[in-house]
Each structure stands twice: as C-alpha cells, then as structure tokens.
From TrEMBL:
Keyword Transmembrane: yes
Official protein name in the record: ECF transporter S component
One Pfam family in the UniProt entry: ECF_trnsprt
InterPro entries: ECF_trnsprt_substrate-spec (IPR024529)
Transmembrane regions listed in the UniProt entry: 7-32, 38-63, 70-88, 94-115, 127-154, 174-201
Molecular-function GO terms, alphabetical: transmembrane transporter activity
Keywords: Membrane, Transmembrane, Transmembrane helix
C-alpha cells in the first residue's frame, strides 16, 4: 500500500514537472522577471517522499531541461545541452550535462535534509516555517549552482553573450541574475512548498496510522 501510494505521488510529481516544462504554466511573469516553477514539484517530492525519490525527480527535471534546450534552443541553451554548439564554435560541451543534472538532482536532496534538520534541532518551529525555509533552500540550490557553473565552466561564451563583460563585471551580472530572478523564485518555491507539502505530510501521516 505504501509503495503504491509512493509510486502514485511520484508519477503525479513527474507529470507536473512535464506540464510546467512544456507549457506557460511553469512560469510566473513579473514583467521584466520570469520566475520558473519547474523545480517546485522536485522540492515537494523530496520532502514528502524522501531524498531517493527527490533525486529521481531532479534527474527527470535535468533530462527534460536538456531535451527542451535541444528542441527549443535559446541564447543559453548551450549550457544545458551538449547538442547545442557553444557560441563561437561548431560543437557542444559535455559540461552542459553537469549543469543540466547536478544542480537539479541536488534540488531533490537538499530540501529534505534541511527540513529534517530544522525539525530535529528546532522542534518547536512550526512545520509551515520549516517547509518554507526548505523550499527556499531548494530553489536557491538550483539558482546558485546553475549560475556559478555557467560562470566557471562557460566563461568565454557567457562573456561573448553579454557584450564581452569579463572578470568582476561578468560576475556582477551573475549576481544580478541571482538577486532579480533567484530570490523571487526562491520565495515562490518556499510559499508553494509550505502550502502543498504541509497538506501532503498530514495526509501521508494519517494514512499510516
């Protein structure tokens, strides 16, 4: 029974990831800022179902991201898919696989342990607040790792894409993206995680009793 419920929830989370990845439902537009929701099901799945399922959902997120970048290429698609040539070259890079998968797999692991740590060390903290913090940490894991990987692994191409900015000026741009896009995404992810995961945790606990 538990395995069936876990498989069902995993399939639901995977379906939501696909829905968010290939439709406008996966984005919230704030004018100049477009916040993605694709990582939210990964975060919630990790907290509710554990880090192994979370890592699987993160792996699926990474694979979908890589394929989507190859099918619908944009200016930065070369950093997520080895099938897209790097700017100024006629070939892709295997480092794109690292960016596509490593941050997303960790999004399916870190929130679980953040939530468990908070519940263990601060047992009086409200579950909703613990989930909020875990959701924020999961989202920031994705943003921080992706942007820093882009800077360190694809520096020349990223510089060329941004009018030749180099060194500190280029990293200021990275920080700008983290602040303007990453923080709103993290807040949204935290609120969504707190709202949805708290209900699912209660339901799973009730079904076990």
């Amino acid at each position: 029974m538990v395995k069936t419920r876990e498989l069902t929830l995993t399939a639901i989370f995977l379906s939501i990831i696909l829905l968010f990845a290939f439709t406008p439902l996966g984005f919230i537009n704030f004018g100049v800022i477009k916040a993605t929701l694709i990582h939210v099901p990964v975060i919630i799945g990790a907290i509710v179902l554990g880090p192994r399922v979370g890592a699987f959902l993160g792996l699926a997120f990474g694979l979908i991201s890589m394929l989507n970048s190859a099918i619908n290429p944009g200016p930065l698609s070369f950093v997520f898919s080895p099938f897209i040539p790097i700017i100024g070259t006629d070939h892709g890079s295997l480092w794109a696989i690292v960016i596509a998968f490593v941050p997303r797999i960790l999004v399916g692991i870190i929130p679980y342990y953040v939530y468990k740590l908070l519940k263990t060390r601060l047992p009086k903290m409200k579950t909703s607040l613990s989930l909020l913090i875990a959701g924020i940490c999961g989202s920031l894991t994705n943003t921080l790792l992706v942007m820093n990987f882009i800077y360190f692994l694809f520096n020349p191409a990223y510089s060329q894409l941004n009018e030749g900015l180099v060194g500190g000026n280029l990293y200021k741009l990275v920080l700008t993206v983290i602040i303007t896009n990453g923080i709103p995404e993290a807040i949204i992810a935290g609120l969504a995680t707190s709202a949805v995961a708290s209900v699912l945790i209660k339901l799973t606990q009730r079904n076990r009793t």
